[in-house]
Amino acid sequence: MSSSVTNPRNLSERDLHEYVAEVEGHDSQVTGVVGYFYRLYRAEVLERVAGVEGRRILEVGCGEGMMFDGTGTHPVQMDVSMTRVGRAAGRCRLLLCADGYQLPFATGSFDVVLLIAVLEHTREPDRMLAEARRVLTRGGRAIMVVPNDVTMSAGRLLLRKFPIRYPDHLTFTTPRKMRRWLSHGFRIREAFTLPFRRLPFAANLYYFAVAEKL
After folding, report:
1. N- or C-end of the chain: fewer Cβ atoms within 10 A?
2. CATH number of 25-213
3. Mean pLDDT of 138-160
């Protein structure tokens, strides 16, 4: 896809993610100041999946496969962007290109589904959560990280990254919205802000949540 698209937000979700994959790689997300915050929430995720068999973990929106790189855990990983999947191939053993709205797995296939920095990239996050719930076992967990787009955009402005809002962020996520979406078939087991747990979401970059399938 050409990188000269006039208005990327007019594209379909799949085409938009393909476009962004071409113009903005993930290397910038794991280095420098941004990389520090990525490592912070990555550590929280890895702590919560420790001891779970890799094949019982599904990572939706794995990007370039960095979450489990070097850990010895080999989950099922997928992304809607073929470009991202191609870059992830050297890091992931169980990898496929698939759509989070239509997961190609049987009901109750996984104990954990990861949606790490994913829901903000969708126009229908509640629909994606419903599909994650479908493939979870009863009592299985969805682990999610969503950004504060306001503080994140301010940070991008300070770092002189343009556009200041990620072009593939399609939904503004907040703790209140997360609670509403998760009220359909989930029970929230953990929820906190990052990097400053004692400060409200408005002063933070991320909201971290673990929800159990009812």
Report:
1. C
2. 3.40.50.150
3. 85
